[in-house]
User: Fold this.
Amino acid sequence: MKRQVPLVLVLLFGLFMIFQYFVPHESSEWVYEFLLDWIYIIGIFALALGIWSLYVVSVDKVKTRKHDWGYSYVTLAGLFGMILFGFTARHGDEWGWYLIFVACVLLTVIMSVQAMAARINKGLPLGLAGLFLLGAVLIAVFDDTWSFYFYTQEGLQSTMFRAFFDYIMMPILATIFSLLAFFIASAAYRAFRARNLLASLLLIAALIVMMRFFPYFGENVGEFIARVSSWLMNVPNLAAQRAIIIGVGLGIVATALKVILGIERGYMGKG
Amino acid sequence: MSRTAVIVFAGVVALFVVSWMVKAMVLADVSETNIVDAFMVTVAAFLTLAIYSFLYKDNPYYKFAEHLFVGVSAAFWMVQGFWTTIVGNLLPRLSEGLATWFQQPYQGGGYDLGVFVFPYSIMYWIPVILGSLLLMRLSPQGGWLSRWPLALIVGTTAGLNFVRYLRSDFIVQVAATFVPLFGRDPHPWQGFGHFFSNLDLSASGQFVALLSNWVIFIGVFCGLIYFFFSKEHTGAFGKASRVGIWILMITFGASFGYTVMGRISLLVGRLTFLFRDWLGLIS
Assistant:
């Protein structure tokens, strides 16, 4: 029951998805569409599981005083802050006690974690958590400049939810990716030494593609480099990428077959 | 915490406050919410600098930004998933009552089987039950039940990938590799005499078109030989493998150059933010 049912399910759904491709009938397309919807819906539950895991790992890190445990509070504050912003919104331009309410909730979370982590003297953090919770509840009841939105999507459009996305999430994401420019430059210094034919090919191809965007070439030279660069990207690059894609595609197909036939069972874990 | 770290931290806080105040004053003429706007721009600028501080070495400011990003992005995707997938697509299909409760238009209906109409809502209760089973992973006794929804996802995805990748990554790619090596429209092959007497080296000419087709065909063929490890790379096979690695090195170089330019573009974007949006030094 514990291992056989999942194997049968994988076999049935795997075979169905293969055969539905060859049966372009309304019924099979109907089931196919539903199955894709099911995966999305179950995926959201998996996301909730992931959030719970993040919470548990962060709390555990604080409890056991692992390396850099203090930063877990930052993770938890970001997590709960963003969730709160996603389900609350202001009614107009007035801020009222909204930000103080958010601060009270975050402090409640932090104090609760602190109480869980403390081996002795749990009373102080617990008392503070209760105090902050009381403050948050009182603000939620009496402050009418903002509301909770559990039924409609006002939270998605709320100022703070969008501000956290625009001014915290995106800047960090873009900066982390742009950080790679420096590491790539460092790697290029080591890799781009024309020691042999292969390294020279690598160097020349990379230089031509990069020089395409160099604005100080004359019109004729610039256009020539742009054409050579396009040819490199569209012809030799395409050829090698295709060889790689064919290999990867065959690998994916073989793995999919192993999974469907129950040879590969890593997804079931132990037990 | 060392004394130096405390001094640096105090300096950073002071700089943040000064930056916030100056930015708020600058924005006072253009925005009614200048204080909040200035705060958010300053936060974004300091987080950008915190990430860049990693170039010096791993430090508390980088770790702060990194941990904040983990929490915020996890919550962002969960909130987005809840509102768009659960509330936007799932609940309005489950029942009319739930759709009304969440102020969404009811998306009911059914599939006419002739004898009776099969309601769609039943089909959407199944993933809800399976999703709930997935949460059983948290229970030590019922953890094995979470394998059922996992099996559905794994089986469906495996079946989908089997057909999709066999078609797009194998059949289509192989078919696209068999290009005409001796010309086609707009350059039909009319013999070697015609080819050499009308040799055109321009990008749109017959020579470049044929060369491209040859490079693609030989490149894919030799590239595949390079990745074939069941036979020793010696003799003609080894020479083909050697050509394969040349093509691969050109590809890696081109991809590398392309990636570098993409990252530089992001870097320029961040520097533009710092110098224009935050410091206002460039227009």
